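Thread: "does anyone have the structure for this chain?"

Original post by V.I.:
We have the sequence but no experimental structure in hand. Need at least a predicted one for the grant figures.
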Amino acid sequence: MRNSETFAALQYKCVGGFPGVYYLVKIYVGNDECVHAMLSLSSEESNGLNVFAVKGYMRRDDELEPLKIELPEK
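Reply from O.Q.:
Generated one for you, tokens below.
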């Protein structure tokens, strides 16, 4: 089990169409493997970083496309 490790964000973009500000991030994890994650930074409801969706087993040259998620109703 790893205690901690540093990963590099290769690319990110702001994603519209959802309430609030969301970022889609391509994270390099080794060799040619990446993870795509949809994140939201702190909002009025919570402090810190919220992870809404993660897609693994991506390659470094895969397009960074918004992930399909359903946000809970408020």
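V.I.: this helps a lot. The beta strands are 8-15, 22-30, 33-40, 50-59.
O.Q.: and The chain has no helices and four strands.
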